[in-house]
């Protein structure tokens, strides 16, 4: 059975939901504490949402220096699938596994809503279960979700097809080019602000679209 590690930093909030989503989608969740110095032999890693280290300095700026991140960066370099959700996306950018930065929402308030996204790249380890151009609904909840990158980086992301998800039906936070999530060129590291782990059960809704992320990584790992 595929083993997917979910890292808990001090201040992580959605680690339990991420582990539950992994389990509901048929893989074995493995809890990884942030000061671990190995990944316990997992096949993939999720950096979950929350407020690691209280969002002090900048979101993800301290978590980046947690001992486990040395292992995550090395494993990502070897091609291991890594998914950063919301605060996890912020940690991935701070760790330079993904380019750019997440800054305060343009309306200067926390935004919580069901968000429509368009799948722009369905070739990654975490998005291959979706159709290209598919519209999905995923919960969004953050205060610092506005994706920023310089013009050159943005042109590269667009030119190389590295935008994984784009907001549709209104940009909730001022992200450049309506970017909701990006991938690295290899397609194993993906970060997005909305929360797929909250969209895996009929009871809580608003969709089951989050399951696609976990099915994608299972399919990806079955191929390697
Ligand atoms: N839901 C989350 O992961 C929150 C992320 C981050 N701390 C923010 O508010 O922007």
UniProtKB/TrEMBL annotation:
It holds the Pfam family GATase_5. It is found in: Cytoplasm. Pathway: Purine metabolism; IMP biosynthesis via de novo pathway; 5-amino-1-(5-phospho-D-ribosyl)imidazole from N(2)-formyl-N(1)-(5-phospho-D-ribosyl)glycinamide: step 1/2. Its EC number is 6.3.5.3, 3.5.1.2. The active site is at residues 86, 195, 197. It comes from the Bacteria. Keywords: ATP-binding, Cytoplasm, Glutamine amidotransferase, Hydrolase, Ligase, Nucleotide-binding, Purine biosynthesis. The keyword Transferase does not apply. It catalyses: L-glutamine + H2O = L-glutamate + NH4(+); N(2)-formyl-N(1)-(5-phospho-beta-D-ribosyl)glycinamide + L-glutamine + ATP + H2O = 2-formamido-N(1)-(5-O-phospho-beta-D-ribosyl)acetamidine + L-glutamate + ADP + phosphate + H(+). HAMAP family: PurQ. Part of the phosphoribosylformylglycinamidine synthase complex involved in the purines biosynthetic pathway. Catalyzes the ATP-dependent conversion of formylglycinamide ribonucleotide (FGAR) and glutamine to yield formylglycinamidine ribonucleotide (FGAM) and glutamate. The FGAM synthase complex is composed of three subunits. PurQ produces an ammonia molecule by converting glutamine to glutamate. PurL transfers the ammonia molecule to FGAR to form FGAM in an ATP-dependent manner. PANTHER family: PHOSPHORIBOSYLFORMYLGLYCINAMIDINE SYNTHASE SUBUNIT PURQ. Part of the FGAM synthase complex composed of 1 PurL, 1 PurQ and 2 PurS subunits. This is Phosphoribosylformylglycinamidine synthase subunit PurQ. It comes from Propioniciclava soli. The lineage of its organism: Bacteria, Bacillati, Actinomycetota, Actinomycetes, Propionibacteriales.
């Amino acid at each position: 059975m595929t083993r997917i590690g979910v890292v808990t930093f001090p201040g992580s909030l959605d680690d339990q939901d991420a582990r539950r989503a992994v389990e509901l989608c048929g893989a074995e969740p493995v809890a990884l504490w942030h000061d671990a110095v190995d990944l316990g032999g997992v096949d993939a890693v999720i950096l979950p949402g929350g407020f690691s280290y209280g969002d002090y300095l900048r979101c993800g700026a301290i978590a980046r220096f947690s001992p486990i991140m040395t292992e995550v960066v090395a494993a990502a370099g070897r091609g291991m699938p890594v998914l950063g959700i919301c605060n996890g996306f912020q940690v991935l950018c701070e760790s330079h596994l993904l380019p750019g930065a997440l800054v305060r929402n343009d309306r200067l308030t926390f935004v919580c809503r069901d968000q429509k996204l368009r799948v722009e790249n369905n070739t990654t380890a975490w998005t291959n279960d979706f159709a290209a151009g598919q519209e999905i609904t995923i919960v969004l909840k953050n205060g610092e979700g506005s994706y920023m990158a310089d013009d050159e980086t943005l042109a590269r992301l667009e030119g190389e097809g590295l935008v994984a998800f784009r907001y549709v039906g209104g940009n909730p936070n001022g992200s450049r080019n309506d970017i909701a999530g990006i991938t690295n060129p290899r397609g194993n590291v993906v970060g997005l602000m909305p929360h797929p782990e909250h969209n895996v059960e009929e009871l809580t809704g608003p969709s089951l679209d989050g399951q696609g992320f976990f099915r994608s990584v299972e399919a990806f790992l079955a191929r390697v």
